[in-house]
Amino acid sequence: MEGDGSDSLVTIKNIERELICPACKELFTHPLILPCQHSICHKCVKELLLTHDDSFNDVGSDNSNQSSPRLRLPSPSMDKIDRLSRPGWKRGSLTPRTTTFPCPGCEHDVDLGERGISGLFRNFTLETIVERYRQAARAATAIMCDLCKPPPQESTKSCMDCSASYCNECFKIYHPWGTVKAQHEYVGPTTNFRPKILMCPEHETERINMYCELCRRPVCHLCKLGGNHSNHRVTTMSSAYKTLKEKLSKDIDYLIGKESQVKSQISELNLLMKETECNGERAKEEAVTHFEKLFEVLEERKSSVLKAIDASKKLRLDKFQTQVEEYQGLLENSGLVGYAQEVLKETDQSCFVQTAKQLHLRIQKATESLKSFRPAAQTSFEDYVVNTSKQTELLGELSFFSSGIDVPEINEEQSRVYNNALINWYHPEKDKADSYVLEYRKINRDEEMLSWNEVEVCGTSKVISDLESNCNYAFRVRAYKGSICSPCSRELTLHTPPAPVFSFLFDEKCGYNNEHLLLNLKRDRVESRAGFNLLLSAERVQVGYYTSLDYIIGDVGITKGKHFWAFRVEPYSYLVKVGVASSDKLQEWLRSPRDAVSPRYEQDSGHDSGSEDACFDSSQPFTLVTIGMKKFFIPKSATSANEPENRVLPMPTSIGIFLDYDKGRVAFYDMDHMKCLYERQVDCSHTMYPAFALMGSGGIQLEEPITAKYLEYQEHM
Fold this sequence. Notes:
Blueprint (H helix, E strand, L loop, with lengths): L1 H13 L16 E3 L5 E3 H16 L20 H6 L16 E3 L6 E3 L9 E2 L1 H14 L19 E3 L4 E3 L1 H7 L11 E2 L22 E3 L4 E3 L1 H6 L7 E3 H21 L1 H70 L6 H9 L5 H23 L17 H8 L12 E2 L5 E2 L3 E6 L8 E9 L9 E5 L3 E4 L7 E10 L2 E2 L6 E4 L21 E3 L5 E4 L3 H7 L11 E4 L8 E8 L5 E8 H9 L1 H4 L13 H5 L7 E7 L2 E3 L14 E3 L4 E6 L4 E6 L4 E7 L6 E8 L2 E5 L5 H9 L1
């Protein structure tokens, strides 16, 4: 029996890697089964949901979370964590709006649905195995009796019905023969008590008695009658138990029968590991040799360049020194002038003439040089500046020999940045790689390059998160096929928005005119229908009546901080106004739109009337710019001298709005180039809302935040 216990201990210890949670890297604690069939600790699921929800909400706030207009609870918050397991959370509540997070085991997004954590099964089998492992690991630590008077005795049994451990004497006392308790199920000493009957998480009073073959999970009869599994094929629990146990036993027997083959392959893998280590060291030595050769070439070129500079410097200094000496000779009692003064003292005429002729020529030459002063050499070494740009670019692309693998190319049209960065690249099908490595780094304002961050990717797209606002980032990708690596692609530079992305949808209640506007179910797209009703109202223009704008606003207001959002205006749109407006101004517009809103008298309507320019106010509680007929109209202020044609720009594909509530500034951006088109002051004394208005046919589509789920949808499409 002792030998069997030892074998059991060894077996349990050998499976430790199967008992580690992929999230916390510790032994499982109350593991739950995710829809992807991987298990994860109960507390880890809560933390992942909380973290994922916070990162989703943070796109509408600053990094410090202090500028968000939404109410938040401190993190970590037990109150918020407890809410995670409650079903039916709604938009705008304190509980998370998302039930999707990436599984730490397979990295695929899993959706917990409306019930959230409450809809997950607890993996009691795995929990029992973990408990056996814990007991094997602490075999020397005894489990004491729960009912003994102090000092307690060592327990010999644990009752699964009572959820308690007993010594022999206490077990007899509390489970006497001839009573109901005598029928309780008991096992060896344990601290892991699990329910004898597995209950349905969706119908808490119903027992699990069937198995859904489509969803691969146990269900109750109510799930089959009218629940989510009503149209699914189910089988009895006993049949599923028998089938799965037979399959598992058969597979285990197969693996046990192949034990010699497995050991042989392990030996082969160990040899391959040693060979890989040797080849890796050899490759490092060869790489060092190649770099040392490059260093030698650079040192040689450096030496020759410095010698050339020194030679030119010496030649120029010699010329300057000669010129200095010549000019010093022009000073009184010095050099040429001093010598000439001595010659003038000669009284013998023949001797004077003989000497003075040559001296006079030298004096004339010195005089001409003095009149037209010119340095003997140049001080600039512009011709000696070493141009290393081409070599630097080549060295930057220095990589391993690709062995025929083509370089992947980043698709600039499909790559974009919003709340996160979405990078797409293309690689020929004939050279399809096993994997890719996407590299990215931040470029500082002084163009200082930071170190590259690397992400391994299996597909040809990747979402990069946690990028800083208002920064330039460089991206590049390289392909791997086996152990062979291709050179890096050409770099793509993207500029992140000037502030965290503000998340909102169109408000379907406040001021929404369902006769003229059509809002989709997701509330991220609105269209203006120029139909018969608009023609009837336009008929009144004969008596000085103007057709009003139809307003629609965001469903979330802003009370502090910096925020950014983006949208697309459909090219066919006749007249669309976009911007921000305060709550009191919106109430004024929406109460009497027929009287207060006129294209002529709206200060930022884009209408070029003189009255509009004259009444331009820098502290008004709203700012709207006009877009239409594929044009972007920059409003004209009273101090602006620009001609109208200089204020009309081509309409960007995507338009962004940046609001700095605390400083009272609003700016409009071309999202394609992250370029500011127009900026001005705005009065932010009240709650500010994203505001939109349409006249005639038109459409506005809010930019969808970039998430991992969004990427999977794009790939599917």
